[in-house]
Amino acid sequence: MHRGKKRTPNDPCSFLSELEKSFELTREHLEEIILEFHHEMKRGLSGKESSLKMLPAFIDRACGKEEGKFMALDLGGTNFRVLQVDLSGDGKARKEHEEKYVIPKAIMHGTGVKLFDFIAQSIKQFIIYNNIGLENKINLGFTFSFPMKQSNISTGILINWTKGFTAKGVIGADVAKLLTTALKKHRLGNIEVAALANDTVGTLAAKSYEDHDCDMGIIFGTGTNACYREKISNIKKLKSSSEKGYMLINTEWGNFNKIRMTKYDVILDEATNNPGEQRMEKMISGMYLGEIARLILEEMIEDKCLFAKGKAKFSKGDFKTEHMSLIESDDSDKLLKIAEYLEGIGISDTSFEEREILKRVCGIVSKRAARISAAAISAIVTWMDPHLEHKHTIAIDGMLYEKYPHFRQLVAATLKEIHKDASEKINLTRAKDGSGIGVAVVAAVAALYRQ
Ligand code: ADP
Ligand code: MG
What we know:
Layout: H1 12-23, H2 27-45, E1 55-56, E2 67-75, E3 80-88, E4 93-101, H3 105-108, H4 112-129, E5 138-144, E6 148-149, E7 157-158, H5 175-185, E8 191-197, H6 199-210, E9 214-220, E10 224-231, E11 246-250, H7 263-270, H8 281-284, H9 289-302, H10 321-328, H11 336-344, H12 352-384, E12 392-397, H13 399-403, H14 407-419, E13 426-430, H15 434-450
Parallel strand pairs: 2-5, 5-8, 9-12, 12-13
Antiparallel strand pairs: 1-11, 2-3, 3-4, 6-7, 9-10, 10-11
Helix pairs in contact: 1-12, 2-12, 4-5, 6-15, 7-9, 9-10, 9-12, 10-12, 12-14
The protein binds adenosine-5'-diphosphate (ADP) and magnesium ion.
């Protein structure tokens, strides 16, 4: 790490080359990550201490024949959403209604009771606004994108909050029960919580509804996580592990902690409300990438390697992953989009070299994110299929994957670097709205199971 070494001041070149080194993940590093991943997966599946929780979802993927109308809730992303989804039974899912609700900060950090009251009130608004009758029972699928321990498809105990949530009194409680209580309190007793699932499970379920090769679901959004399809006989921690068949496993891979950290990762981690946790998520996802880049830029400014002329400052929270996207998307000769962005935040008269540095810093941070993502994907796919003999459709949801320039291409290129031609068996596809449509599919799969 470069703080310890003597570096010529004002020398962006040596700063950047040291930075690049500390963020670099060679092919060997990637192979090590994959091995460690397998090790942690195995431990997690056996119920041993592991950074991968490997949470059984008590549901398998869809077969495509599921049908009916379902209400869906999506909690754990940027917005809280309520949806009504219609499944036609032929692999087609349609959103009939969708409303977004912003969860006030005070509610995110208040009490669980208040949080679930807010959810029930939002559902009530949704029902009134969309003229949904309450005479008949409504089956609800609840996407709850936090680590939870399930013992069946319709209950789940919150293990810990992530992504900035801290509402008190929820950890250790069954979130389906908290929701049911709040629904009853708001005279919405006709709504039954039929299924509770993580957004990765929803993403896999939604894709598998139309594509039967889908056996993995991933989120690259505010946070990151993945689920995949596991043989029940491999889930040693389950009482039913002697059974035949498959079950989806929510890996909670955001918490994987066997990747070497730079000093920026350490600083970032210490300032979060869950230090020591979600280490991989903090290197990959939308909530954190901007902050990593900002810490680097601040140091460069302090060292007079960047914007030495003016009074540039990037305060905590000011530099977001969306800004990195914008900067990296500037392919103009003179980097004028970047100049415009900098003007907008009060940094004017920048040189081309300075704008190039900014772009390079973003590139270093996002490249590492994409390469870690590819290693993690490779680890899960080779766990399911060591010699890549079968096709694997990977359903991916999240704005980071969708919007970040070159992210997708870098993930694909890294998979190719690791697996050569066999990487063609790994089909990365975008899943539209796994956390909305997906959980309706999960609720429908659960309904089919019950029959
Ligand atoms: P979630 O459902 O987890 O909130 P989304 O898929 O809605 O995830 O993604 C939202 C997150 O994606 C934001 O928190 C932000 O970090 C990131 N994001 C949004 N827009 C962009 C963009 N243009 N480029 C990169 N990241 C983005
Ligand atoms: Mg989402």
